[in-house]
Design goal:
Elements (H helix, E strand, L loop, with lengths): L1 E6 L6 H10 L3 E6 L11 E4 L19 H11 L3 E5 L1 H9 L5 E3 L7 E9 L15 E8 L3 E3 L2 H9 L3 E5 L10 E5 L5 E4 L17 H11 L1
Parallel strand pairs: 1-2, 1-3, 3-4, 4-11
Antiparallel strand pairs: 5-8, 6-7, 6-9, 9-10, 10-11
Length: about 220
């Protein structure tokens, strides 16, 4: 599997994401936001967490208009896989690759801790190594992780099985405790929790490893 991990000014989880892909056996190329193309043969694009462009306008708004994002949209349109984590999820909503928006956390507080998640859809390529309704633990670290969408969009996400992960308890005010969603084709996943921070024993947990291994298996 060939993975391209993007970097924007203010990204701070790009190295973590690259290491997680490499640990799963992927060949990783780091891609700068001003690049206009993805490396030849890219299977999956990873959009990392952090504070792209310092969240100067709103989270992900400027990054969503970076030159590389045209290539990411084209990659997704032809069926390539895209994984956006934390700020990466925010960027995916800003580009229109995923519906809804990430708003300021309820309580206006930064949340940084381990959280329990329920696997809502175990049939996607991102979640194929998990069991339906399985509970896993990933870290979160965000100030704007409150997923919001209108009622029709939320009903459509639920009805189409596009809610990938749900918080097991209220964390940030997200509508219906949604922690991660898929696009209609199932090849784009955005999620606020950090699976790349849960891939080895030194992290204190390894629940995230299976997400990357499942991607590798699907591509292979």
């Amino acid at each position: 599997m060939k993975a391209a991990v993007l970097t924007f000014p203010g990204s701070n989880c790009d190295r973590d994401l690259a290491v997680a892909f490499e640990a799963a056996g992927a060949e990783v190329t780091r891609v700068w936001h001003k690049d206009a193309t993805l490396p030849a043969g890219t299977d999956v694009v990873g959009i990392p967490g952090g504070f792209s462009f310092g969240d100067y306008l709103r989270c992900g708004a400027i990054a969503g208009r970076a030159p590389i994002m045209d290539a990411v949209r084209a990659h997704a349109a032809r069926g390539g896989y895209v994984l956006g984590i934390c700020n990466g999820f925010q960027i995916l909503t800003e580009t229109g690759l995923l519906p809804g928006a990430l708003m300021r956390n309820a309580g206006i507080r930064f949340v940084g801790r381990d959280v329990a998640l329920t696997v809502e859809n175990s049939q996607s390529i991102f979640t194929s190594r998990y069991e339906a309704a399985e509970q896993v633990t990933f870290p979160v670290a965000h100030h704007d992780g409150n997923y919001s969408a209108d009622a029709d969009t939320l009903d459509r996400l639920e009805g189409d099985g596009r809610v990938a992960f749900r918080y097991a308890e209220e964390v940030n005010g997200s509508a219906r405790n949604i922690a991660g969603i898929l696009n209609a084709a199932g090849n784009v996943l955005g999620m606020m929790p950090h699976p790349e921070r849960a891939v080895e024993g030194a992290h204190g947990r390894t629940d995230g490893r299976r997400l990357f291994e499942g991607l590798l298996e699907a591509v292979a």
